[in-house]
Amino acid sequence: MQKEIKTLSAQIKKALQISEDIEIDSGSLSNIVIDGMGGSGIAGDIFKNLYTGSLPVCVNKNDQLPSIAGDNTLLISISYSGNTEETLSTLHEAIKKNIVTLVISSGGKITDMCDKYEIPLCKIPGDMEPRSAVGYLSFTLLGIMENSNILSGVSKSAKRLMTMLDDPDMCFQEAAEQLAKKMRGKIPVIFSPHEYSSLSYRWKTQINESSKQFAYANVYPEIFHNELEGFECSGNSAYVVFLKDPDAKNQYSKQLNFLKKILVEKNVSFSEIEMIGDSNIEKMFTSIHLGDWVSYYLGIENEVDIKRVDLIEGMKK
Q: N or C: more exposed end of the chain, with fewer CB within 10 A?
């Protein structure tokens, strides 16, 4: 898994090459549905956070299409393996309804469906765990969206991002290892701004899969209306991580300072991590990269096989 995490910069470069000639006619679209589960679905969550246009965007994590899917919908089906049961089910439904569809996958049954029904396929490299292919999955999608004038600034941000990821002075691994040691024996609770909801969720799911333990994610300001009360009786079982955008307005500083005061009173340990980068894409993916390393080192602390997901695979049989 360590080797795969290190490939993020190379994945981004390759993904933009794969997507460079793919463009969607977005003029008549009424909405966008991005369909995917687990490590494949996170690409949709990331896009939804980054998109600032007027089209409704639905990230579907179900075995049926959402009710908004119709004649003027763009469906993007993402399955790294190409064999995800729920994604295959929704693609069958989309074919019956003649919904315009694009597929991102490395192979499997879904590529056979693309051949049979002449569905455009963006084929990405395989032989990785889906959760490790976040660069391939996300930047293939983001590149297509930039080509289609649905997103802007992707290529420019990607160049700066790759430079940061390849810079040894960034010390992602060292920072992650230190944080993982602090988390050992605790339940990680990851908080991010609402506009970066996919970031805290990514940290959570990586800790679930790679570290083999529970973790929780939520966003502020929502946490001030429910989760805050959870610290009343949590003791010191949690370790809280605040992911913060240093360029954001300080409209929640009062609430966050109050929460940190409560954590100190309740003897709950926490860390504050400022995102780095000039754009939301850079901030998102440098923070994702750090979180992936945290989950890796926390898995080492837990003395587990980081790569294997036996419970998930057992459920699929």
A: C
